[in-house]
Amino acid sequence: MKTDAPPLSTDRCSRARLSRDVRFDGLFFVAVKTTGIFCRPICPAPAPKESNVQYFSSALEASQAGFRPCLRCRPEAAPGSPAWRGTGTTLARAVRLIDEGAWCEQSLSEFSERLGVSDRYLRKLFQDELGLSPLRYLNFRRVLLAKQLLQQSSLAIGDIAIASGFGSVRRFNAAFNQLMGMAPREVRRSGGSDEMKMGGEGALLFLCYRPPYDWSWLQRFLAQRAIEGLEQVTDDSYRRTIQIGNARGAFVVTHCAERHGFRVQLWLDRPELTAAAIAQVRRILDLDADRDTIANHLGNCPALAPRVSKGLPLPGIWSPFEAGVRAILGQQVSVLAARQLVEKLVSELGEPLNDSERLFPAPGKVASSSLSFLRMPNSRRETLRDFAAYLANGGEEDPNKWLALKGIGPWTVDYVRMRMGDPDIWLASDLGVRKGLELLAGEPDPEQWRPWSSYASLQMWRLLEQDCGEKS
């Protein structure tokens, strides 16, 4: 199995685990040779002797070496790290799609076709780079999700089998036993978490991040753009309705600063898409970024260094279509005006989920509407309809392909790419970014902030926000 070395030296790994430094959570894993288990560096169990441990870059590497995940610190709940995923574009995309739950009801041949390769080539790629087949990797991810649900939710074991992507309890039990060395019911008996004791309907679990994490900034960002009937933002929580494939539902995340993460409650009418929905929640909250490293990199710029805001998460959005609609309706208007237009669109065309909440409108619904209820130039109305029709008719969700549509320019495409999680987007034509840049001494070259230009764009928005606050 080809693997990357741990991102840190052995000495740094040792110091990090002995101090239980949460900034290193998910960047490496600690395997204990005497017990056969692997842990997060923040595991609360007594620290083993250095001679008895081995360090791995990922949970997969530790598992492939024959170690089982710890029942106490729950390695499956650690923030993600892309370091181990290899450099091959096809492999990286395949792993990302599997992690996002995109391989759900397809055969390996159909999944390979989506990647533009044969199933034989994909099997060879996984074997050469990761040391296992695509199906074994898929089952590895499913078992880790199942373990998390077993320990953190009150869902029945049969429901967990479906929610984690297994078609039957029998297959679930076999895969779980193979990886964990015990039956699912034994993990359930090992003790639930505070989340499990709360009960409630739906999947309930806890997702961690690596600090620093500026929830107050993200909360303000989401609150300023929250759409009535679609989203609700409080001081410590964010709730919204969702549609993923043919599944409909909602989620609410509650920030727990002292635990460096979010309590997540998820409701879906098709539980087999739980993994895909959780991956979307992780992206919206930007849980897997190494913000300490990013801030240090941006701070290498002398002009920005004194004013770097550490811990800014990259605010995500549920779907490329929603991001595109918000960007189009936000062209050349204020944040407030854009929000009012989106609220009108949702209230007129969004399908009701319950008495008080609606789903974001589907592309076909927007494409077939006159949109006469939106007070904006006819040209922008036509752009919105054309964009919706393009996606409703099977157009690609890759924003770079949208530039061929009339009325969609580089700012719209870049904004969508950034909100969908691309870390390296410099919004050069954005008014707020330009004004923020003007507040810095000299003329910094944005190229120096790559590959984290999106976070540099956020820093410019934050600088402008701070400047306006000081003036008021």
Q: Secondary-structure blueprint of this entry?
A:
Elements: H1 10-19, E1 29-32, E2 37-39, E3 53-56, H2 59-64, E4 68-69, H3 89-99, H4 108-115, H5 119-130, H6 134-152, H7 157-163, H8 169-180, H9 184-189, H10 194-198, E5 203-208, H11 215-225, E6 231-233, E7 237-244, E8 247-256, E9 261-268, H12 274-285, H13 291-298, H14 320-329, H15 335-349, H16 363-367, H17 378-392, H18 410-419, H19 431-438, H20 453-471
Parallel strand pairs: 2-4
Antiparallel strand pairs: 1-2, 1-3, 5-9, 6-7, 7-8, 8-9
Strand content: 5-15%
- Sheet/helix structural class: alpha+beta
Helix content: 40-55%
Q: What average pLDDT do the residues reach? A: 89
Shape: globular
State the distance separating the first and last CA atoms: 58 Å
Task: Give the CATH class of the largest domain.
Answer: Mainly Alpha
Number of strands: 9
Radius of gyration: 23 Å
The helix tally amounts to 20
CATH superfamily of the largest domain: Homeodomain-like
Strand order in the largest sheet: 5-9-8-7-6
**Which architecture of the largest domain per CATH?**
Orthogonal Bundle
Largest sheet: 5 strands, antiparallel
Number of domains: 4
Order of secondary-structure elements: HEEEHEHHHHHHHHEHEEEEHHHHHHHHH
Low-pLDDT regions = 1-6, 82-87, 194-200
